[in-house]
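Question:
Now give any protein.
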Amino acid sequence: MRKEYTMKNTKYDFESVVDRHNTDSVKWDLFDDDLPMWVADMDFKVAPKISEAILERANHPVYGYTIVTDELFDAYISWWDRRYGLKMSREDMAYAMGVMPSISSMIRCLTDVGDEILIQTPVYHVFFYVIEENDRKVLENELIFENGEYKIDFDDLDEKLSKVKMMILCNPHNPIGKIWSREELDRIDELCRKHDVILISDEIHCDLTDPGVKYNPFRANDNVIRCLSPSKSFNIAGYQSSVVHATNPELLEKIKSQIHIDNSDSCNVFATTAVRSAYNESEDWLEELREVLYENKQIVRDYLSEELPIVKLIECDATYLLWLDCSALNTPSKALSEFLRQNQGLFISAGSDFGQCGDNFLRMNIACPQKLLKEGLDKLKAGVIALNNINRLSKNI
């Protein structure tokens, strides 16, 4: 019998379904799908304090060019200090319009055309694009998948780091939702220093961990660059705001110069307002969000166990992106994802988007009200049943 989940007494509204159609939403307006559960933004209302701050700024009748203020950097510094005990200084930070624009700039100024750049697959698909579109080559350190869990192949990593100038790390890791341990991060650090490799650590999902669980920031050293942003945590990606943190002054100056050349250091008129309000006024909203996402995760786990055991949930401690093992369906992930869209109007990302080693998987975004989540799970079940019926029929022909 399916368990029913009910929200505890909550201060904020995570239950209302917000109609996002006709808002120029990438998630809801780009394609004609009934239920998109792919791109990594949330279908929850933004924290009220952020809305109030934005509306107050919007009431001023002039929306001109905007500076990046010290108050924005102070908000970052305070956040990482009080939540993670990480001390950062203003001198070690640079503003950028987003994590991926800044990584693109870093690839251009710190590597050469034709260089290989190492990533750990399966991983965020834009890592592939940003490397290849800058005329560099992807070198994969495939994660080892054993007994339903991922781990790093350190022997392979050691060997391949000898061939590259740069590695891009995802921590917590998208799409598998893994928080890398301190020991794993220190081993990566050791190997990068051994081979004199620049390490870019994308930590954009760092706040979205299960209740009671914290991620491990990558330790600062001369070869490490950390990319930080509140955009995922507070669902404000549309404001396009992030910072680069590097304690190596020479490295940081090169990055700042390239970001400026790429015109990626300008500030959206509402960005500083949104970031300050998120970090300074909306922490309690984030804590409640983490509870909601954890509850959604339990709903998916129980649903698959009881209603759709042929699909397995890969256990994770972070992000609102679930990695579903669909290997028992014997269908390539692109074909499976497209079938679900055509048959059920459900858009879930194909695992092969994150590297060919992800082809037995789908990635599902569960950052939505429970009503939509349950609808999505029912569509997934109906689609799998329809696919199995077609496969059985074809075998009998």
The CA atoms of residues 169 and 201 lie 5 Å apart. The chain has twelve helices and 15 strands.
